[in-house]
Amino acid sequence: MFAVRRLIRFLVSLAVLVVASFAMIHLIPGDPIRAALGMNAPPELVAQRRADLGLDDPIPTQLLAYIKQLLSGEFGTSFISREPVGQIIVDRLPNTLALAALATVFALLVAVPLGMWAGIRTENGRNRGTEIGFTSTTGAAVAVPEFLYSIGLVVVFAVTLGWFPPAGRDGVISYVLPILSLAIGPIAMVARVARVETLRELSTDYIRLARAKRLPASRLYFRHLLPNTLTATLTIGGLLLTGLIAGSLLVEYVFAWPGLGMRMVESITMKDYPVAQAIILVYGGIVLVVNLVVDLLLAKLDPKSTIKEA
Amino acid sequence: MRHLLRTPSGVIGLALVAVTLVIAAVGPAIWGQEAETVNAAAALQGSSAEHPLGTDHLGRDILARVLAGGQFTVALAFLATAIGAGLGTLLGVLPAVLPRRAGRLVTGAVNALVAFPALLLAMFTAVISGLGAKGAVLGIGIAFAPSIARLTQTLSASVASADYVAAARLLRVPRWRIATRHVLPNIGEPIILNLTAALGSSLVAMSGMSFLGLGVQPPSYDWGRLLFDGFSRIYVDPMVAIGPAIAIVAAGIGFNLLGEALARSVARAPVGGKQAVGKGAAMPSSGEEPVEGAVLSVKDLTVTFPDGVTPVRGLSLTIMPGEIVGLVGESGSGKSMTANAVGGLVAYPGVVTAGHMSLCGEELSTLSEAKRRKLLGTSMAMVFQDPMASLNPALKVGGQLAEVSLVHQGAKRPAAWARAIDRLRQVHIPDPEKRARQHPHEFSGGMRQRAVIAMGLMGTPRLLIADEPTTALDVTVQRQILKLLREVSAEAGAGALFISHDIAVVSELCDRVVVMYAGRVVEELPVADLVDGASHPYTKALLASLPDMETDRDKPLASIPGHQPSPADVGEGCAFASRCALATDRCVERPPLTRYDAAHAVACWHAETRKAEVAIG
Ligand code: SF4
Question: ABC transporter domain: from which residue to which, for each copy (chain B) (predicted)?
Fold first, then answer.
C-alpha cells in the first residue's frame, strides 16, 4: 500500500520534472537561440535552429513532441558539437555514477563504525573530551564544501607530494582523491547521526536486556545495536547520495573528471541549451529514483517503520 | 551568550563569524584601492613577501582582493538567505492557515522539493537567467526555501494546534491575522537560529557557483570568483587558490558552528535521553557472610551518583530458592535501581557498593570478569516493564533467545534454536516454530513479555528479576503473566525478585514483601501477615489506599498525602516523617531496621507500640 502511494508520488514528481525541464528553455528571457549563437549569427541559421527545436510551434504541441522524444530516448542534439545528447549521456553517466556510488559506500563504511564508536564512548556523558572533539570536528567538516576539499587534496597530495594524479580519469589511483573529496563531508554528517542514534538505542530496554544477558561486546554492538541504528543512518545515506550527485558536479570540475557534471557546467557556460536541459533532467531523475528506492527499501527493511505505518 | 561561550565550537564559530563580518564591513574601504591597482609588471606572480597570496593576471594583489571581496561575498550570501527565508516562511506558514486541501498540496510540494539538491536548482535558474550573480543568488535562495519551509511547517503546525490559536479561530480572527499575530512570532526564534547555519551554506553554495564560472562575472569578484581565477594556476602557485579557499572555509565553518551552538544553547536537552545502563563501578567486598543457601544475598547495598544523589541506601536483601520476594514502593523509592544494581546494570556514573553481594553463593565482586559474565548471563534472568521495548525490533525473536545458549553455553546453532523453541512452548506461546521466526512487532504485548520470560529460561535461571513486568499490560494479560512467573519460578526452583508499585499485585504473587521508601527498606514481612501484621505507617498507608470488596467503588482511592523526598534530598531523620501521622520528636533521628522475628523487620520508632496494640487488640 505504501509502495503504491510512494510510486504515485514518484510519477507525479517525474512529470513535474519533465515539464520543468521543458519550460526551462522557454523561460529564458529573449531569444535563447540568438543568445546561444551570438548576435552576429546569420538569421537563416537562427531560424533553422529554431525550427530544429520546434520553437515556433504552439507550446502544447512542443510539449507533446518533447515528451514523445524523451520516450523514444531522444534528447536532441548539441548546439556546439552537434553530437546527439543521448550519446553524451551514455558516455558520461557511468563515470559520474561510479564516483558517487563509490563515495557513498566508502562514506558509510567509515562513518557508521565511527559514529557508533563515538556513541559508545560518550554514553551517559562520559569522556566529555571525546564528545567535544567529535562534535566540533564533524561540525566543522560538514561545513566545508566538497570542492574545497578537492582543492585542498589536490594541493597537498597531487601538487606538493605528487602521490596522485591531479586530474583526469586514469586507472584506480585517479579515483582516490575525488572519492575522498566527496566522502569527507558525508562521513562527518553520517557519523553524527550514527552517534545520536547509538546513544538513543543504548538507552532502550532491549539493550538493557541484552546487557543483562551478558552478551560479549561485539555481539551486543554489532548484532543488537547496529541494525537499529541503520534506519536513520540509511535515510541520511539516501539524502547523502542525492547530495553527492550535486557535489560531484563541482568535484568533477576540479578533477576534470569526464562525467556528466563537468559537461553540464560547460554546457551552461556555452549556452548549449539542449545539453544542459537533458543533463538537468537526468540528474533530477536520478535524485527522484534514489529517493524512491531509499523509501521503499526502508519500508521493507525496517520493521519499526512498518509499526509506524500500522 | 554565556551558553555559547561554554563550548569550544561556539567560541570558534563566534570568532570566525566576527572576523568575517568585520572584513566584510571594512574590507572595501581599506583594501578596495589596492585590490583594483593594476600593475602589469607584477602580473601572475606567486607568493612573495610583498604579495603573500601572489598577484593575478593584471598584477593585482590577491590578498587585497580577498579582503576587499569579502563584502560582496557576504552580501550575496545574505541576499540568498533572505530570499530563501522569505519564500520558505511563506510556504511554511501557508498550510497552517490555508484550507486543509490546499495546505496539503503545499506540504506535498515542499516535501518533494526538500529532497532536491540545492545546487541543481541553482543550475536550473542559472540556465534561465544566464550567467551572473543575479541568477545564482536567486537560484540558491529558491533552493533553500523548501528546507526552511519544512522547518516553518513543523514549527507552525505545533503552534497552530496550541490553545490560543484555537481560541483565535473560535473568535473568527481572519487566517492571515492568525498567521502574522500568533504563528509567526512564536516560531521566529528557531527560524532565525537556523538561518545562521543557512547563511554559511548560502555563502558556500554561492562560492561554488562562482567557482564554476556560473556566478559572479568579472569585473565583479567574490571569493568564489577569485578561486575560479586562481584554480587554473593551482599547479604552479597553489597559494593563489588557497587564499580564497581558506576565506570560504573559515566563513562557512564559522556560520555553521555558530548556528549549531546557538541551537544548542536554546535547546539544552542532552542527546541520549533518560537513564541508561552501563557498567557500575566494582564493589569492594567486606562485611558479613552471605546467607547460606540463598540464591541472592545482598548486604548494605548502596548506589550513589557523583552529584550526591543516592537512590539506594544500605539495602539488605535475601532471596531463597523458590521464593518470590516482592519489592514495593512508589516510583523514586529506589526499587528499580536496586534491580539494576543486583543485575550489574547501574548506569555510569553511578557507583555501587555493598558489604557483600552474592548470587548462588558466589561473591560477585571477587569473580573474574569472564566468570561473572557467565554466571549473571545464565543464572539470572531479567524482565522489564515494557515488553514493546525489551525485544530488539531488528532481530527475530527466536534468534534473540538462541543467542543466550550460543554465547554462554557454547551450543551449536540448531541446538540453540531448538532450545529457544522449546522455551517459547514452555511459556505457552502457540505455534512456537513459526513464532520463533517472527520479529517482535508481529507479537502482541503479552506474547512479547512471555518471550522475554522465555529468554530468561534459556540458561538455568536461579534468580529471576522482574521489574514491573505487568504494568504495561492490560488486566487479563497481567494475570496470565503473573501466573506464568509463578509457574516458572516453581518449576526451575528459582528465586524471584518482583518489583512493583502495586502492593495488591505483590500480595497476590509473592511469598514475602519488602517495602522500600526513599532508598531504604522500611518493612519486610511475609505476605500472609501483610493485612494484619504490617506495622510501618507507610506500609499501612499503602494497604489503606487499596480498594477492597467493601470499599465503595465510587469513592476515590485513598492516597497518601505529601511527597516522597527525592533521592537527592533525603534528610537525616525518618524519611517518612513529613507524611506520617505518628511522627514525634524522636523521628528526627532515623529509625534502624529492627527485626521482630525471623520474617518480620520494621524501621519505625513507633512500630513496636503498634505491634503491641495489635497483639493485645
Ligand atoms: S519513625 Fe516516626 S516518622 Fe518514621 S514512620 Fe515511624 S513514626 Fe513515622
Answer: 296-543
